[in-house]
Each structure stands twice: as structure tokens, then as C-alpha cells.
Amino acid sequence: MSINSEDTFKKVVIENGYEFESVDDEGWVSYGFNIVRDSIDGNKSSKWGGYNKNDGKFSFQFNRRTILGNFLGSEDDTSENPYDLIVKDIKENCKYYKIINFNGTDYVSYGCSESTYKGKIGFVVSEGVGLIRHFPNE
Predict the structure, then answer these.
(1) Which of 17, 39, 70, 129 is the most buried (most CB within 10 A)?
(2) Which residues contact 69 (CB under 8 A, 6 or more apart)?
(3) In a domain, 1, yes or no
């Protein structure tokens, strides 16, 4: 709830052990956690964070499956996954707003009165990945 600028985004990710990945042509600054660099297949990480320099949007994605769970095709206990812990915090401290469809995916969104960003925060699980995204006020 403290992210309201590129500086505060970088503070959050760096303090949580993320490392710089890149800045793309659309202004997205990307950080990953324990990045495995691969110039052929693309870099991999279990957690990514991004901040858009142009419009102040930020997003995070968390792999909710363990390597063993992927291999065995079994369900994992995700209760200690960062995504689930953040979502629990959002649901306890913020108020449900509405469903927001972004690029064909429905996000549950909440308004957080104590947040420093302007807008709503939304979350969804898609294909085993937990997504948390900032939706600025329109």
C-alpha cells in the first residue's frame, strides 16, 4: 500500500530481495526474484514486479506452484505464498470495489483507504500465477 512512485516501488522490491531485470520501450521497469538468466528462452523468476514510468501503474506476479508440484501435477499448499499473504492483507484491510476486466481477465478489485497510491488494487489467479495489479483512477 506504500507504492506511489517509481522510487517507492524500487524501495519495496529491492528491500524484498528482487533484482533489476530491464526497462522496456513502454516504460515498464521490471524486477525479478532470484532471476535465472537465459538469453535463448528468456529470463525466469518465481516472482516479478513492474512499474510503469509513464502512468504510475504497478503489478506483481507470483508463481503459486512449486517445482515439485509442477512435476507431480499435484496441488500445493499455497497459504504461505507471497501472493496469498498479500491478498489476505488486502481483503482484511480494504473494501471490495468491483470486478475489473483487464485484457480479457477478470480481477477482483478493492479500494484501500490507507494506501498512498491513487486508484484500486486488483488480484486474480490465472494458470497457476497470482497476479496483483494497480488500477489508477480513471
Answers:
(1) 129
(2) 75, 76
(3) no
